[in-house]
C-alpha cells in the first residue's frame, strides 16, 4: 500500500485536520519550490476542467511539472488499453497520479496496482476527496471551527457525491444536518443509517423555503435534469429549488452559502453580491487544499 | 422421507440439506454437478417443518472447498452441510460468510469498474441484525443479499 488518497474515509480525523492546517500554510504562501524535480500525471478519462486546472496549478505553483491528458479520447484508453496497463505505464514516468474516471471504483483499483500514490479526482458518482477537503477547509475558515455546526444540504442528495462525502467527513465533528431535497432525490437510506449509528441528529424536508434560519452552512448542489424520469417534475423542482437573495434575510450572520460548482440555476445571480455567498472563494480554497494533499501523498514537508 | 435414511445412504461424501427449493438448481450449478461422475442424489420439494419445502443434495466422495461453501453461503445462508465418513456424520458445518468475499459475485452497480475491466471483485460482508449486505471494495456501493449475481466460472 502506498500513500494514495481515494476516499475521504481513508483519512482519520487527525489526518483531515493536519491537511487543513497545511492548507492554511499554503494559503499564506502558495508559491514554493517544494515539488522541484517532481512530475505529477493528471489522467482525466472524462473532462473536468475546473478540477484539472486546480490540481495542475497546485503542482506548478510548488515548482513541479505536469504530464497527462484531459480527455480519454486523446489517450490510448480509446484504443482499448486496460486501466491496469495505463497506470503501469504512467507510473514509469510520474511521481504521483491524479486521476478522474467515469467508472466508480477506478481510483481504488488504480491505487492497488500503482507503485506511485494515486489521488482520486472523482470516480463517477462515488468519491471526490479533494472536493470534500476543500469544503471542510471553507467551513473551517468561515466558521472558525468544525465542531457542533448546523449544516443544511440542498438539492440532489441522492446522487450528489459531494454531499455523501461531506456527511462522512463531518461525522467526526458532532454536526446537526438538515437535508432538503425533492422526493426523487432524497438522501439514500444508507446515509440515514450512518447518521443514526453515529448519533448525528438530522431532519428532512422537501421544500427549500422551509426555514434554514438556524443553519451555519447552506450547502447547495445542482439538481440535474437527467436524474428525473418525469420531466414535468423536473421543471417544477428546478424553480422551487432556486436560492433567492431574500431567502437569506433572516439567516444567522455567520451563515455561508457553499456550492461545489458549476452552478446552473440553483442559486440566483443576486445572491452573488451577498456577503454570505462563499462559493467562489470556496473554489479558490481548492488550490491550497490540493497543494496540501499533493505534499502529503509525496511525503514532502511544508517547510521544504 | 426420513433424514437418517438419506444421510446413511452415503458412505463418504457431503450432504447439503435445507436448501430453499428455489435455490436448489443454483447450488447444483455452483458445484458443477452436471459434470460429476460419482453417485449423486439431488432431491427437491421435500417436506420440511422449518421451511415448508426444501432441497437436498448428496454427493459421494466429495468434500467442499472453502470457495464453494462461501458461494453457497451467499445464496442459501441457512443450508446445512454434513460431512460423512464411513456412514457417520463426522462434521456438521453451518455456512458462515467470511468477512470478505473474493471474486465470487458480480457487483450490482453497472458503472462499477469491476464490470468493465478484468478485475477480480472483492466485497466486505456487513452483518446488520439478521440481514447481510455486501460492500464493494471498489465502488463502495452496497449489495443486498437477494440482489447477488454469482460469477460463472
Spatial order of the strands in the main sheet of chain B?
2-3-1-4-5
Number of contiguous helices of chain A: 9
Based on helices, strands and strand pairing, what is the structural class of chain A? alpha/beta
Distance between the termini of chain A: 25 Å
User: Could you state the order of secondary-structure elements of chain B as H and E?
Assistant: HEHEEHEEEEEEEE
SS class of chain B: alpha+beta
Largest sheet descriptor of chain A: 5 strands, parallel
Report the mean per-residue pLDDT of chain B as an integer. 88
Essential attributes:
heterodimer; A: 304 residues; alpha/beta; Rossmann fold; five-stranded parallel beta sheet; 9 helices; B: 153 residues; alpha+beta; Alpha-Beta Plaits; SH3 type barrels; five-stranded antiparallel beta sheet; globular
Tell me what the structure shows.
- The complex is a heterodimer of chains A (304) and B (153).
- Chain A has 304 residues and is an alpha/beta fold.
- Chain A has 2 domains: 8-127 and 286-297, Aspartate/ornithine carbamoyltransferase (Rossmann fold); 130-283, Rossmann fold (3-Layer(aba) Sandwich).
- Chain A is 36% helix and 14% strand.
- Chain A has helices at residues 13-28, 49-61, 83-91, 106-113, 129-143, 161-170, 189-197, 231-240, 279-297; strands at residues 39-44, 65-69, 96-101, 118-123, 150-154, 176-180, 202-205, 217-220, 256-258.
- In chain A, strands 7-6-5-8-9 form a 5-stranded parallel sheet, with helices on one face. In chain A, strands 2-1-3-4 form a 4-stranded parallel sheet, with helices on both faces.
- In chain A, α2 (49-61) crosses α9.
- The model of chain A has no long low-confidence stretch (mean pLDDT 93).
- Chain B has 153 residues and is α+β, with helices and mostly antiparallel strands.
- Chain B has helices spanning 3-8, 24-30, 66-75; strands at residues 13-20, 40-48, 52-60, 80-85, 88-94, 100-102, 105-106, 122-128, 131-136, 142-144, 149-150.
- In chain B, the strands form 3 sheets. A 5-stranded antiparallel sheet of chain B has the order 2-3-1-4-5. A 4-stranded antiparallel sheet of chain B has the order 6-8-9-10, with no helix packed on it. In chain B, strands 7-11 form a two-stranded antiparallel ribbon.
- The model of chain B has no long low-confidence stretch (mean pLDDT 88).
- Chain A binds chain B through residues 7, 82-84, 101-106, 108-109, 123-127, 190, 193, and chain B through 107, 109, 111-114, 116-119, 128, 136-142.
Amino acid at each position: 500500500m502506498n500513500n494514495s488518497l481515494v476516499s475521504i474515509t481513508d483519512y482519520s480525523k487527525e489526518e483531515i485536520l493536519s491537511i487543513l492546517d497545511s492548507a492554511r500554510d499554503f494559503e499564506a504562501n502558495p508559491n514554493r519550490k517544494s515539488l522541484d524535480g517532481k512530475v505529477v500525471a493528471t489522467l482525466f478519462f472524462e473532462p473536468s476542467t475546473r478540477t484539472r486546472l486546480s490540481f495542475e496549478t497546485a503542482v506548478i505553483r510548488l515548482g513541479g511539472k505536469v504530464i497527462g491528458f484531459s480527455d480519454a479520447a486523446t489517450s490510448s484508453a480509446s484504443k482499448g488499453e486496460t486501466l491496469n496497463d495505463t497506470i503501469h505505464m504512467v507510473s514509469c514516468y510520474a511521481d504521483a497520479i491524479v486521476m478522474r474516471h467515469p467508472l466508480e471504483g477506478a481510483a481504488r483499483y488504480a491505487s492497488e496496482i500503482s507503485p506511485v500514490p494515486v489521488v482520486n479526482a472523482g470516480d463517477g458518482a462515488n468519491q471526490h476527496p479533494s472536493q470534500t477537503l476543500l469544503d471542510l477547509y471553507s467551513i473551517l475558515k468561515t466558521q472558525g471551527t468544525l465542531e457542533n455546526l448546523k449544516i443544511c444540504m440542498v438539492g440532489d442528495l441522492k446522487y450528489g457525491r459531494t454531499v455523501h462525502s461531506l456527511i462522512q467527513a463531518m461525522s467526526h465533528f458532532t454536526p446537526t444536518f438538515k437535508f432538503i431535497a425533492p422526493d426523487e432525490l432524497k438522501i439514500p437510506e444508507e446515509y440515514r443509517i450512518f447518521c443514526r449509528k453515529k448519533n448525528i441528529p438530522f431532519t428532512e424536508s422537501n421544500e427549500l423555503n422551509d426555514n434554514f434560519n438556524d443553519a451555519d452552512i447552506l450547502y447547495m448542489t445542482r439538481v440535474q435534469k437527467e436524474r428525473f424520469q418525469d420531466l414535468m417534475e423536473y421543471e417544477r423542482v428546478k424553480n422551487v429549488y432556486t436560492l433567492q437573495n431574500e431567502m437569506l434575510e433572516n439567516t444567522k450572520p455567520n451563515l455561508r452559502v457553499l456550492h461545489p460548482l458549476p452552478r446552473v440555476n440553483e442559486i440566483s445571480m443576486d445572491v452573488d453580491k451577498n456577503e454570505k455567498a462563499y462559493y467562489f472563494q470556496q473554489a479558490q480554497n481548492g488550490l491550497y487544499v490540493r497543494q496540501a494533499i499533493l505534499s502529503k501523498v509525496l511525503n514532502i514537508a511544508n517547510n521544504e | 422421507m426420513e433424514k437418517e435414511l438419506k444421510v446413511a445412504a452415503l458412505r463418504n461424501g457431503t450432504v447439503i440439506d435445507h436448501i430453499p427449493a428455489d435455490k436448489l438448481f443454483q447450488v447444483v450449478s455452483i458445484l458443477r454437478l452436471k459434470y460429476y461422475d460419482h453417485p449423486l442424489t439431488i432431491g427437491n420439494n421435500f417436506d420440511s417443518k422449518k421451511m415448508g419445502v426444501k432441497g437436498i443434495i448428496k454427493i459421494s466422495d466429495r468434500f467442499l472447498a472453502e470457495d464453494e461453501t462461501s458461494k453457497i453461503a451467499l445464496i442459501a445462508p441457512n443450508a446445512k452441510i454434513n460431512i460423512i465418513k464411513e456412514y457417520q456424520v463426522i462434521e456438521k458445518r453451518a455456512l458462515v460468510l467470511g468477512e470478505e468475499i473474493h471474486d465470487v459475485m458480480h457487483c450490482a452497480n453497472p458503472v462499477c469498474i469491476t464490470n468493465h475491466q478484468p478485475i477480480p471483485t472483492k466485497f466486505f460482508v456487513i452483518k446488520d441484525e439478521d440481514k447481510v449486505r455486501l460492500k464493494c471494495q471498489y465502488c463502495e456501493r452496497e449489495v443486498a443479499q437477494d440482489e447477488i449475481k454469482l460469477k460463472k466460472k
